Every structure is written in C-alpha cells, then in structure tokens.
C-alpha cells in the first residue's frame, strides 16, 4: 500500500467536501432556513449537524492519533503499511444520502445555539484539524490504531479511515442540502 497516496487522496477528498460545504454558508436566507416538506432539517440545521458530528469524530481521531503514536514504539509500522489495503467499497455508502438508515446520537442533533458565521468558522477550523492530523501521521502512524465504527457496520477502522469517514459524512449531507435547495426553488 502506498500510504502517501492514501493520505493525499484523503486530503483531496477533504478539500472538495469542505470547499463545497463552505459555499453553502453564502446562500440566501430563505434557502438556508426553509423547512423541507419531509419534515427534515433546514440547510442551516444540516450545517450545524456537520459541525457537531465533526466535533465528536475529531475527539476520536485525536485519541486514535495519540494511541497510534504510542503504538509506534511497539508495532512494526513497515509491516502494517505493507499489509494494509484500503477497502474503498466498505466506505462508499457512507457518502450516499439515504443509502442506509442512520440513527445519530442526540448530541449530534442541531440545537440552533450557534449562528451561521460561528458554524462556518468552526467548520473551517475542523478542516484544518483534519489536515493537521494527516500531516502529523504522514509516515503511516494512523494505521497503528483502530477504533470501532458502528455506522453501517464498518467495524474496526484506522485513524485515516476515520478522517475519510468524516469527509464522507459531510458529502452525504451535501446531497441533502442540494435536495432542500431544489425543493425551495420549486416552491
């Protein structure tokens, strides 16, 4: 496995996802706050949910990073890199809106406590955090810690895969926001 290629691919995916999210903050007030007919979240609520989910995923990513660095002293990184293969198919459904039922924890539901500019600033900081972890784990250290991910039965995933999951989760909600916008424009 070319770990450097994997890291670059994740960085590229993050940039595309976060750049697209950032564009939503400049949308018209009506588009941002129109309730969809299905009773789902407004676009502003979705943006807050993305921030909240990233917040909690980044806690796990930080713990995984720290454990991976500790494991560096005990595990054979070269062997881990050699034996690792990224299974993209396992993750693809995560980025598809509506591909499977997703019951999120209550603490990841938007509460409306942050204004749009605060959410935008926090999401931009989260993007930088992701890039920072990838830079800190530039030699493959992210393979040295695995944590269970219950969403879509992914099972044990490494720190790089957690960061990719975060980006895919964002992508999932980009589709939802596009659907909301289309409905608002039609009405």
Structural domain tally: 1
Query: Over all CA atoms, what is the radius of gyration?
Result: 17 Å
**Main beta sheet, described?**
2 strands, antiparallel
Distance separating the two termini: 50 Å
| Secondary structure: number of strands | 2
What is the residue-averaged pLDDT? 93
Q: Which architecture does the CATH hierarchy give at level 2?
A: Up-down Bundle
Domain DinB-like: 32-177
Organism: Chryseobacterium angstadtii
InterPro entries: DinB-like, DinB/YfiT-like
Protein name: DinB-like domain-containing protein
What are the defining features of this structure?
single chain; elongated; DinB-like; Four Helix Bundle (Hemerythrin (Met), subunit A); 187 residues; mainly alpha; two-stranded antiparallel ribbon; DinB-like domain-containing protein; DinB/YfiT-like
Short description:
The protein is mainly alpha-helical. It has helices spanning 3-24, 29-33, 43-71, 77-83, 88-92, 116-136, 159-186, and strands spanning 146-149, 155-158.
Structure, described:
The protein has helices at residues 3-24, 29-33, 43-71, 77-83, 88-92, 116-136, 159-186; strands spanning 146-149, 155-158. It is mainly α. It has a single domain (3-186), classed as Four Helix Bundle (Hemerythrin (Met), subunit A) (Up-down Bundle). It has a two-stranded antiparallel ribbon. Helix 1 (3-24) runs antiparallel to helix 6 (116-136), helix 1 runs parallel beside helix 7 (159-186) and helix 3 packs antiparallel against helix 7.
């Amino acid at each position: 496995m070319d770990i450097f290629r994997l890291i670059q691919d994740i960085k590229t995916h993050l940039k595309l996802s976060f750049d697209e999210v950032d564009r939503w903050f400049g949308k018209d007030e009506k588009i941002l706050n129109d309730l969809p007919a299905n009773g789902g979240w407004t676009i502003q609520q979705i943006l807050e949910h993305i921030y909240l989910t990233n917040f909690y995923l980044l806690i796990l990513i930080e713990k995984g990073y720290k454990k991976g660095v500790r494991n560096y002293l005990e595990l054979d990184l070269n062997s881990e890199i050699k034996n690792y293969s990224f299974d993209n198919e396992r993750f693809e459904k995560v980025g598809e809106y509506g591909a499977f039922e997703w019951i999120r924890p209550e603490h990841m539901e938007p509460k409306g406590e942050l204004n749009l500019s605060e959410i935008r600033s926090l999401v931009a900081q989260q993007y930088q955090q992701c890039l920072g972890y990838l830079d800190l784990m530039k030699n493959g250290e992210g393979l040295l810690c695995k944590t269970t991910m219950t969403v879509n039965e992914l099972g044990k995933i490494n720190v790089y895969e957690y960061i990719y999951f975060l980006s895919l989760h964002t992508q999932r909600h980009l589709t939802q926001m596009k659907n909301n916008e289309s409905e608002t424009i039609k009405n």
